[in-house]
Amino acid sequence: MLRSMTGYGRGEAVFSERSITVELRSVNNRYLDCTIKMPRAFLFAEEKLKNAVQVAVARGKVDVFISVDASAGDKGSKVTVNEALCDQYYMALTALRDRYQLRDDITVSLLSRMPDVLTVEKAEEDSDTAAEQLLSVLALALEDYTAMREREGAKLVEDILSRADTIEALTKRVEELSPKTVADYRARLEAKMSETLANTQIDESRILTEAAIFADKVAVDEETVRLKSHLSQLRDLLNKGGSVGRKLDFLIQEFNREANTIGSKCSDIEIARIVVDIKAEIEKIREQVQNIE
Length: 293
What we know:
The protein is an alpha+beta fold. Helices cover 62% and strands 14% of the residues.
């Protein structure tokens, strides 16, 4: 299925030792650009997380936000007292009390606030388990994220196909008007020659030659055939789905090339107006294609 490059996804899970939340946001980008923002304590898993994103996403600027609430993991923490240092603090405070005859207000609270008296030692992190937990929550977020991108992709396909049908109808109209342009030119040429030469015999072969030259200059058969072929290829790529954004982007350039050539060849006002409408639809498709992965 075709996917948009713009999307959002969220995953959340609670494990025995921590609660993990993962959010993904993405916007258009020519290539895949993945940035992961997470607590420094879990940076060891960053490469695995990026690899998981690369498997699920082909293009786009993807920002991954990971928050970890490890309050439940404090059960494995241990508080130790540096008794030797605490003794030194107590002796120093006592000496100050006696020297300056101060009130004795040395308390446990005071000593506990002294630098390095209390040390919290956290249990050693099981990196493999933590990485598996992060990846499992990322998978939930990616599932939500992918579902949203597919919904957006379906809307893009619907809009592009509608505009492709419009371009095809306009191209058909150009094909219908093109022969009439040559006929009108021949009629104008005959009228002008009749007016100029008055009663002189008109050289029919000369008129045919001039009309043939003009017809060759304004013939757009090749361009309209190629344009319809591009439309068929466009529909095939959209039905195929997957990461076809770059191919579509290149194909739209070919659309523009054919439309510009038709416009440069035709001097007929009505055809010129149709070409403007075709180019307007192509531009709208190009804007939509910019959102496709």
